[in-house]
Amino acid sequence: MFESTSSSPVPHSERLAGSPVVRRGGQWWLVTSTGSILANDPSFTGELDRFAAAMAAADREVARIRDERAAARKEGP
Q1: CA-to-CA dists, residue 41 to 46, 48, 51, 66, angstroms
Q2: Residue 50: in which H helix or E strand, if any?
Q3: For 28-70, how does the pLDDT look when each residue is reduced to its tens digit (9 = 90+)?
Q4: Secondary structure class of 76 (helix, strand, coil)
Q5: Distance between CA 37 and CA 28 in Å, rounded?
Q6: Are 50 and 42 a contacting pair, CB within 8 Å?
Q7: Nearest to 29 by CA among 13, 47, 16
């Protein structure tokens, strides 16, 4: 259950909202500077899945709003 992370740091893009939780190969891992442990509790991983989906939806909405604002600025007053 324990995996050393000394080979390379986890890319920021895999982390869940800057937390010590990453998704690798369809599984959630809790990561520290000394290693990582597989999160295998279905209730916990289900919450992580829901939170990740909500974060992705929020990111898409923010991008949509930014695009709308950029388009409005290009059109001018």
Answers
A1: 8, 11, 15, 37
A2: helix 42-75
A3: 999 999 999 999 999 999 999 999 999 999 999 999 999 999 9
A4: coil
A5: 9
A6: no
A7: 16
Contacts of 10 by beta carbon, 8 Å cutoff, 6+ apart: 22, 31
Q: Tokens in use for 70?
A: 């950029």
Say how far apart CA 49 and CA 74 lie, in whole Å: 38
Tokens read off for 38: 């597989």
3-state class (DSSP) for residue 35: strand
The pLDDT of residue 10 is above 70: no
Across the beta sheet with 35-38, the strand order is 2-3, 35-38, 27-32, 21-24
DSSP state of 14: G
pLDDT score at 13: 43
